[in-house]
Amino acid sequence: MDFRNTEPAQSDTDPADPPFSPLRLGTWPTPLEPAPRLATALGLRAEDLWIKRDDLTGLAGGGNKIRKLEWTVAGALAKGAGTLVTTGAAQSNHARLTAAAGARLGLDVVLVLPGEPPAAASGNLLLDSLLGARLVWAGDVDGEGLETRARETAEELRQAGAAPAVIPFGGSSVLGARGYREAGQELLEQCPGVRHIVVALGSGGTMAGLVAAAGARQVLGVDTGARREAVAAVHEYASALTQGALAVEELRVRGDQIGAGYGTLTPQTADALSLAARCEGVVLDPVYTGRALAGLRAAVRDGDIRPGETTVLVHTGGLPGFFGHSGIQALLG
Ligand SMILES: *Cc1c(COP(=O)(O)O)cnc(C)c1O
User: Fold this and answer.
1) Is 274 noted as a catalytic residue in this protein?
2) pTM for the model
């Protein structure tokens, strides 16, 4: 399955001044924890490294998508929606948390996923069903085909009398990125001297919001290969949120951790998962946060991040994806 031809979503409302407030679905602020043993293992000083625990956001397994849903679902409700429709990979954390948000708010949720129903559900898929979402399997489609299927599903629901709203791929839009601008502000209050904020880059809203809060120089995105034009998406959302001149060249993105593609477990990521678990008792995931740590490790090796520079790794969640990943058994050797 290849999502890389998913174009950046259009901004769905005036980002400068949306006429509604965000919902509160998560537990804020999330903790910022020191990671001294991981720091020294990476070649940093013990006091240099912190982990922003955005895996501990509260709702249904947690993760970064809640902050974006607080805005995108508020936007959907403002338009009178009663049903949320969204897309993602079969093991999408965003789809699972959309299901959870819908449950919390008493909304119907329809998840349009690529491929065919698996013989046995695991990880996020298991939670999607538990949370009461309806799954629509779109068969063999690319990213664009999946978006089309989501729009068709919404149209079918509308004709059946429902009031659907399509939440964009990964929850990323100018509106969704506002949630991560807030997260960036929260992080700057917790760690005023931060020099590097390292985060996995998927659909782009998370990195964009952090850039809007902290500036492009402070944020290092590690591309996971989730979407083609990921950097353009970050640029679009961050520019809209800052109403300023942000050149795309200013964005710091590493493309060296994609390996054989989105969702594959790379050797560097497998090493990073072991390292975080054994140094700090922190479980990262094979698709996003493990790649972020692998990218951080590579950045220390090539001198982009140096000892003495305060660095925050954003733990964006993904634990259910760990249990849903078919290659994870390889970690046990
Ligand atoms: C979606 C996701 C990301 C990437 O966030 P984007 O806003 O899509 O770039 C990172 N980590 C986890 C665990 C995710 O589920």
Assistant:
1) no
2) 0.94
